């Protein structure tokens, strides 16, 4: 047939054109995967597939309601003086007012009064009646005029009180009346004024030593009877003691060593008691005299002689 020998040539020509195109497509596809894998290996991170984030539901926000605040205690003033107590304050109700007035009146001596003004305001802060009463009671023994003032922040206490314990008690009571307030405790404790010492008291000990050195108080042997000559000495000591009303003395009893040692101590005590009784009889307060027996333990002379034993049977009067 004519034209049949050309068909194989056409087929081969067609193959030569199509095969290279197919090879090129395969290589491009392989190279693309390789580049993608190389990029992932070099960075160490493979790009994650894009995803759509899930929808979130947001809870509605609410504004918290503020707790109601406690009403503040209104400023107040307390003045305590020799006329009574002045109260200027604001309380929450009539019951608190009545309580405070009754407590204040219970502390006042006859002739003193409660004055000032206690106002009632239901919106006022709760002024503690017990704390206020504690302040009044602490200041009951104040010296002159004392004041307690609260300005809304600080409680200030001023004036004179008798001692440190009263000052501390008043401050604690003020803090209780208004919890949380600053307490400025300016109360003063006056220094005790010592009475002037008279010349008679200044020289008492010296004069007593001179008197008892010149006028002995001795006893009959074995007795608690003052020797007749010694009675005048006791009278002189009594007069000396009355010249200084604050002086105190010890009456010390002694014995010689002739008696039984077991009886010496009681005998010396009896002698001391006898002289004390005589001094009291002559007007010296018993509280200013101490009597004590020492037995034969403190001789002033030798017991080997009669004169020495007489000297040892004695009572000494000295400042303790």
Overall description:
This protein has a 6-stranded mixed sheet, covered by helices on one side. Strands 8-7-9 form a 3-stranded mixed sheet. Mean pLDDT is 81; it is low at 30-47. It has helices spanning 7-43, 94-107, 129-138, 164-177, 199-202, 204-214, 231-243, 261-281, 306-312; strands at 76-81, 84-91, 113-120, 143-150, 154-160, 182-188, 249-253, 289-293, 315-318. With 320 residues, it is an alpha/beta fold. The chain is 41% helix and 18% strand. Helix 3 packs antiparallel against helix 4, helix 6 packs antiparallel against helix 7 (231-243) and helix 7 packs across helix 8 (261-281). The longest helix has 37 residues, at 7-43. It has 9 helices and 9 strands. Helix 4 links the parallel strand 5 (154-160) and strand 6.
